């Protein structure tokens, strides 16, 4: 345990200052990746970092690395998260990881301490994947899971490419994204669930992620008139889709506590009053910490879907187009976080992330781990997202102590 303490009031005021950029009417944040607002948020972070004497390096996707020199020629200890938000975002998702990292460096600078290993604070580009798919784009390309050319050519709903958005705000640096010389990558993040709150624990030590399996589903029926066509002869894709949605929910309920499943997206055609729908598309997923159970959930779900298609005499095509995880974080780094929290008399709980995070991508190229701070009510991707100043400060303190331990 270091003798250093984070400044809770400063960490909180940094959050509130950042939330002035892209405020949503309901009190949250709306800062789409590579927008003018994202550029403004990045400029604020850069100003804060320059005031601390850090150097800035950007790669061609605008992943940004703020570096504090160490006293020895060692690999850097890196930490950070993301500043972009979903349209209905809160003030903490991603932001807290960046600002807790900034607070770590502020405390060290104030104390006049130079760590042996250099430190790098990271702001990853487009973690959310809302404007430009896929999620975790910056860290994904950094880790070699997607090429730079592929990422640059991705277009948003208005037809603007990542390359154009980068150019519009002069955000890109010269070098292609690539793994850096890092001893570790740590990410503080809000939990986005309610486990820590319900158990009253201070800090989640994230040991890995669940496995997620994603399905694009197309229900094909027969178009017909909503009046004259008798009920037994119609092949209604929307009614069948309703059953698929409920089956998806049932599989998640049966899969708890380790399992989850959702149907999160739907389009319907012709989506016309007076016409029985004939093409309905859905996006569903199943998630479980145990990959074998995730596979069973998939089998249960697809079995239910096949039964619906047979009974309703229509066609349901399922494309299980991608699987994600499970990822195991580095046990030694996770233990450094756990030890740091316990040394401060904080209670900890080992847990798995049920969402994707930049650390998941970083874990492909260096030892990585995450810590969670509680989310009040488990609310996230919502303007009501909230963690208290004290909860954030506890997390930042653990991050500080772990960074000091790893860079000593
Ligand atoms: Zn996030």
How would you portray this structure in words?
This protein is an alpha/beta fold. The protein has two domains: 8-209 and 326-407, 3-Layer(aba) Sandwich (Aminopeptidase), CATH 3.40.630.10; 211-324, Alpha-Beta Plaits, CATH 3.30.70.360. The chain is built from twelve helices and 14 strands. It has helices spanning 8-18, 36-51, 95-111, 137-142, 148-153, 162-168, 195-199, 237-255, 291-312, 331-343, 358-362, 389-407; strands at residues 55-58, 64-68, 76-82, 119-124, 182-190, 203-209, 211-220, 224-225, 259-269, 275-276, 279-288, 315-324, 348-353, 368-373. The chain has an eight-stranded mixed beta sheet with strand order 1-2-4-3-5-14-6-13. A four-stranded antiparallel beta sheet has the order 9-11-7-12, covered by helices on one side. It is globular and about 80 Å long. The model has no long low-confidence stretch (mean pLDDT 96). The structure holds zinc ion. The site of zinc ion (ZN) has 5 residues, from loops.
Keywords, separated by commas or semicolons:
408 residues, alpha/beta, Aminopeptidase, Alpha-Beta Plaits, 2 domains, eight-stranded mixed sheet, four-stranded antiparallel sheet, binds zinc ion
Per CATH, which architecture of the largest domain? 3-Layer(aba) Sandwich
- In DSSP terms (H or I, runs of 4 or more residues), the helix count works out at 12
> Please, what is the CATH homologous superfamily of the largest domain?
Zn peptidases
Helical fraction: 25-40%
List low-confidence stretches.
none
Physical arrangement of strands within the biggest beta sheet: 1-2-4-3-5-14-6-13
